[in-house]
Amino acid sequence: MKIASAQIESIVGDIKGNFKKHLEMIALAAHETVRLIVFPEMSITGYCKERGHELAIQSTSPEIIKLKKLSKAHHLVIIIGAPILINEELFIGSFILLPTGDVEIYTKQFLHTGEDQFYASSFNYNPTIRIEGEIISFAICADIDHEEHPKKAKQRLCSLYIPSIFFTQNGIDKGHELLANYSSTYSMNILMSNYSGKVSGLVSGGRSAFWDNNGQLIGALSSDQPNLLIIERHKNGWVKKEYHHKN
After folding, report:
1. Strand 202-203 and strand 129-131: pairing?
2. SS3 for 161-206, per residue?
3. 5 in Cβ contact with 209 (< 8 Å)
4. What is the mean pLDDT of each successive set of 10 residues along the chain, which is 247 residues long?
5. Which domain holds residue 212?
6. Which CATH number characterizes residue 101's domain?
7. Can you give the pLDDT at residue 19?
8. Looking at residue 132, what DSSP letter applies?
9. Could you tell me the CA-to-CA distances from 193 to 3, 61, 240 in Å, in that order?
């Protein structure tokens, strides 16, 4: 089984342009017969606070309808980020598109300072999915700053933990340190997706990565370029697939 982390640069409000980048990465993943691809926090809209209501994506949005078709056609789980309106409450969330045509929603549980002025948090939207023997759970950015989050994932028998984040250059070292520690402490494989380039005027830290359940870093991208990290499961564990995306 192959899984992938997509590292892209999203421009706030440019849903059409951002979506095109998603389609390009999904096409590359499908060509490599990847079973799951994850994008960064609020990947479709770009990371935003004040414009969350304006840019919110819903299950009926044309982007989601298109992704549902691609998920089914390529037998590919697609995880994308966006502001999401649920019952008139606005959340930072992930759409999890399944090849069956079903769509699951995960909402960020722990907000960064200032996000609570614009977004609600909830523990009610916290699905797990299963792919080829892996039990998979999700996280968004500040969730990983709270160890109770991966701990609860392990209590739910999670074997693959997938955070979508936006960490800057100043924060990504800490992010790597936390995730490496969680992977070994809770014996979980971890696949993380972060942005490249500038997002909301901040320089992102990139370095999307995968750790196995012994805390070993199996593969990571550079800090500043869009790319696709592909990890493959073999009988003896997980390995990085040699793959080079030409911009």
Report:
1. unpaired
2. EEEECCCECCCHHHHHHHHHHHHHHCCCEEEEECCCCEECCEEECC
3. yes
4. 97 97 97 97 96 94 97 98 95 98 97 94 96 97 97 98 96 97 98 94 95 97 93 93 63
5. 2-240
6. 3.60.110.10
7. 98
8. T
9. 12, 23, 15
CA distance 21 to 9: 8
As given in the structure block, the two tokens for residue 75 are: 């037998």
Do 176 and 207 touch, CB atoms closer than 8 A?
Answer: yes
Asked if residue 97 belongs to a domain, the reply is yes
Q: Is 246 within a domain?
A: no
In a domain? residue 245: no
Number of structural domains found in the chain: 1
Would 163 be classed as within a structural domain? yes
Q: Which amino acid is at 208?
A: S
b/e sequence 129-156, b meaning 16+ C-beta within 10 Å: beeeebbbbbbbbbbbeeeebbebbbee
